[in-house]
Specification:
The complex is a heterodimer of chains A (280) and B (281). Chain A has 280 residues and is of the alpha/beta class. Chain A contains 10 helices and 9 strands. In chain A, a hairpin with a 2-residue loop joins strand 8 and strand 9. Chain B has one domain. The chains are: A alpha/beta (280), B mainly alpha (281). The interface between A and B is large, with 46 and 37 residues.
Chain lengths: 280, 281
């Protein structure tokens, strides 16, 4: 049975378009000009238990919006979504017990207090027993090595250290699904390697399903047998990485992805250097 | 593999555990506030100046008069001091905090947690309130008493009922702040709303002026709102102007407003979250 099943998932935002100049601002007071932006446009996305899926797309393609709908933060405009037996936005308090989320851009830890205090609070929030809590911290520490800064406030940590703590925080309650929104953003080579190693371990050992968005294709190559590519809200490719290589020949993944973002099809030959030609 | 190691088996949380979580949040917020010691020194300084200014103002207003609005000069000075000391306890930044979380998109991190956002916020506000009692209200009240002795409650029952009523005032003030904070879901510029809220609260709660000083028609309007249960009514209990069954009436009125505002904020929250646009990445 599918763990994540989204059908025709759509999210529209209404955007208020400001008019220019003083007169424009004055007119805005009385009549607002809205345009509708379809950030996610009828995508189907089905993931089985234990899978590790890379979810990529250019900036503004709709990745984060999709993740936010899957995690129950945003309510879809249309379509259906069912994750782990729940409709995320409807049964948020029950549903979120079974998921872990990491946003690379912002920390879920308390800024001014020691990391361990945040962990202890999360233990309470998710009702994790003392033994499980200790066992997991120990296990995660073996790979992520956060022992030395566990008693520092989060604001004093480097980005790499903070990310390791954030990952731990998302997994303390052993969730069925882990959503990662750009977990390696801004990290150095070693930091990335450590996080990749950790995610592999978690996925193989605890059978945690992982959905990960990234701009670093190295993450995909290292971790994900399956990749989904989204652009302008539409799903362009959803399948195995091997199949992606096979379709496009012996290209590097970066080149393939560039071509896909450019709107090329595998059958047609197109040079990504010729920016003007590709859309013709 | 032991059963508890299977993913997604986080145990459901009973009422007792939920209570422990909120208690833990109260404790953490208290500790967190201790980290910002410098802010409470400036806070005490601010309150001293405020109370001092009102003392001289009312001293001047009462020159040559016995009683205004049912209060004599000594009662009025006690009223002002008690009102401001109580405010140092029940005041909170809840509105601004909620608005900032909504505006920066940090609210997303709250929505992925299996708890009630509002309960967590109230728990943290309570932690801050405990801090404020210990480090603002009690020291400030004591210091003022030694500088300029003011009236004490007529008996210990009145003192106790006053504390109960102020606690009710704290809950109601927090609820109003929460609802004001939620306005950030719908407008980017909340500063105007907060300023209006502050002026309304200061005027209609009876902090600046006892409600009995207002003309009859204004009192009739103020009666329709929860504001006067925050400051005016608890202060009158302190002064012994509300006694016996009338105290029960005040407490029941507060309970009514707590229920009413609770309902409004839950409905507001549900509506807002459904229509919310989370800002940023």
């Amino acid at each position: 049975m599918a763990l994540i099943e989204a059908r025709g998932l759509t999210k529209e935002f209404r955007i208020f378009r400001r008019r220019e100049g003083v007169m424009g601002a004055f007119r805005d007071l009385f009549q607002r000009d809205y345009t509708t932006l379809r950030a996610v446009d009828g995508i189907d996305f089905v993931v089985a238990e234990g899978e590790m899926v890379g979810y990529i797309g250019a900036n503004g393609a709709g990745k984060s919006t999709t993740i936010k709908m899957l995690t129950g933060i945003l309510v879809p405009t249309a379509g259906s979504v069912n994750v782990n037996g729940f409709i995320p936005y409807k049964e948020r308090e029950k549903y979120t017990r079974g998921i872990g989320v990491v946003f690379g851009q912002r920390s879920q830890l308390w800024w001014d207090i020691a990391v361990i205090e945040s962990f202890k609070l999360l233990r309470r929030i998710y009702n994790v027993s003392q033994e499980e809590f200790k066992a997991r911290l120990k296990k995660f520490d073996d790979i992520l090595e956060f022992g030395s800064f566990l008693h520092l406030p989060v604001r004093k940590l480097s980005l790499g250290q903070r990310m390791r703590c954030d990952l731990t925080a998302a997994l303390l309650h052993n969730p069925a699904i882990l959503f990662l929104d750009e977990p390696t953003i801004g990290l150095d080579v070693l930091g990335k390697a450590k996080i990749r190693e950790f995610l592999k371990e978690i996925n193989s050992e605890s059978k945690t399903t992982v959905i990960l968005t990234t701009h670093d294709l190295g993450d995909i190559e290292a971790l994900c047998p399956r990749v989904a590519i989204i652009d302008k809200g539409k799903m362009l490719y959803d399948g195995s990485v091997d199949n992606l290589y096979a379709q496009w020949g012996h290209d590097k993944m970066e080149d393939i992805v560039k071509k896909i973002y450019e709107g090329c099809k595998p059958e047609q030959y197109c040079m990504i250097e010729n920016w003007g030609d590709t859309h013709a | 593999m032991p059963d508890h190691d299977l993913p997604g088996r986080s145990r459901p949380v009973g009422f007792g555990n939920r209570f422990l979580l909120y208690l833990e949040l109260v404790r953490m917020e208290f500790v967190n506030n201790l980290a910002y010691r410098s802010s409470y020194f400036t806070g005490i300084f601010n309150y001293t100046i405020q109370i001092g200014a009102y003392f001289f103002l009312w001293d001047a207003i009462y020159s040559g008069r016995r009683a205004i609005g049912g209060l004599n000069k000594e009662e009025m000075i006690t009223y002002v001091i008690v009102a401001w000391v109580a405010r140092s306890f029940y005041f909170s930044n809840l509105d601004r905090r909620v608005a900032v979380e909504i505006r920066d998109g940090k609210i997303a991190l709250e929505l992925i947690r299996p708890y009630s956002y509002q309960m967590v916020k109230y728990a943290r506000a309570s932690g801050e309130a405990f801090f404020r009692i210990l480090f603002f209200a009690v020291p400030a009240g004591t210091a003022i008493y030694f500088i300029r002795p003011f009236g004490l409650p007529p008996d210990w029952q009145a003192g106790l009922l006053f504390l109960l009523a102020v606690t009710g005032g704290f809950v109601i003030n927090s609820q109003i702040s929460m609802i004001a904070g939620f306005c950030a879901f719908f407008t980017q510029s909340t500063s105007g709303i907060f300023r209006a809220k502050r002026v309304i609260m200061d005027l209609f709660s009876g902090l600046l002026l006892p409600i009995s000083f207002y003309p009859g028609w204004a009192r009739d309007i103020i009666k329709l709102f929860p504001f006067q249960t925050v400051s005016y009514m608890p202060n009158l209990i302190y002064l012994g102007k509300i006694t016996g069954g009338a105290v029960l009436h005040v407490i029941l009125l507060q309970l009514f407003w707590v229920a009413f505002l609770g309902l409004v904020s839950v409905l507001f929250w549900r509506f807002a979250v459904k229509h919310v646009v989370i800002q940023g990445g």
